[in-house]
Amino acid sequence: MSNSAVVRWTVGLSAAVAGVFAFAVVRLQQPLSEADVDGPQTYCYRGVRTHDDEQPTAQCFTVEDGKFSRVFAWDDASLTTTPGFVIPGLWDGHGHLLQYGEFLHSVDLFGAASFDDVRGRLRNYVDANPDAGTSEEWIRGVGWDQNVYGRMPTAADIEEDELLRGKFFMLDRIDVHCSWVSQAVLDLLPADIPDVPGGDIIREPGMGVFCDNAMDMLYAIFPAPGLEKKRAFVSTAMAKLNEETTFDLIFDYTFLCALPLSARPKWAARMAALLNPNGGRLVCLEFPSGKPLSQVGPPWGLTNDTYLALLARPGEEPTTAPDGSINVPDIRPGGLRRLELVKPARTHKAGENEDGTVRDWLHVWSLVGA
């Protein structure tokens, strides 16, 4: 499957897939659950990697109060050895804001129990977005599952509904390894489509589904969203994420540099809204540090004072001095104060000066009073 297809629905799938995956992982680790055991518990496996220089490998470990209290070699015949290995790992939990916003602007087909259910959800979307479904703005969706319907869907299944007929649809399967398209999309492709190495074109019971590498021909003709649409995706995602919660830690890893100057006050307002007022921290990587703000991006330039001006009064447009520098106002209630300004010891090549010194900065912020 193409990288574009995977990235496009990474976050769209997270609500369904992450929950299932997390449940599976928890069940695999069930012996270590504190809810199920009392007192120290010992587990033995074929091998345990510790990443400890003095004892890099072992076979057994004891867990007490949620912590490893002992790691040792198997030397007791009474201990049962479980097949498999234990390897320390890091769960890199993260989200893709743009893709999540795109998912929120699409048709949610997760849990659709029948083709009638799918068509009903598509109709609801069309009713709410009457201008969608044109050759310039396809209707996207994700979450259908042919195992529920008893067969693969076809373009004809969409055309059965008069309201949907003639519109451009591209709907990804629950695992995003297949896309189901409408007849309008099929009409853009050659009449006799050859097989694709590494992909499948489902021809029975009819045309309409393309899987894995065959999806590339769909993305080649798909009208990718423009800048304004992407801005709408980001705004929708940030609003959705802010509906019910705030965050203890927000890491703005070069996101601000992707925004033009006119959009930056909205970024500052959203960061202030998302940050937990009770000790929450906003960490920002300033990149590209020192690039003139007048130069066109992305990446758009950033300075220390840019952050100070934006976050002192989130949502307000900063003013500039006659020399082009940004005026830093006093912090208003609801603003953020900088706790730390750190020059990293090293960074990527794009963040270095010609002499190899680091140009980037790291900022740490909190809401006033936090």
From TrEMBL:
Keyword Membrane recorded: yes
BP terms from Gene Ontology: methylation
Any one GO molecular function term: S-adenosylmethionine-dependent methyltransferase activity
Swiss-Prot/TrEMBL keywords: Membrane, Transmembrane, Transmembrane helix
Domain Amidohydrolase, residue spans: 85-243
PANTHER family: IMIDAZOLONEPROPIONASE, PROTEIN LONG AFTER FAR-RED 3
Protein name (Swiss-Prot/TrEMBL): Amidohydrolase 3 domain-containing protein
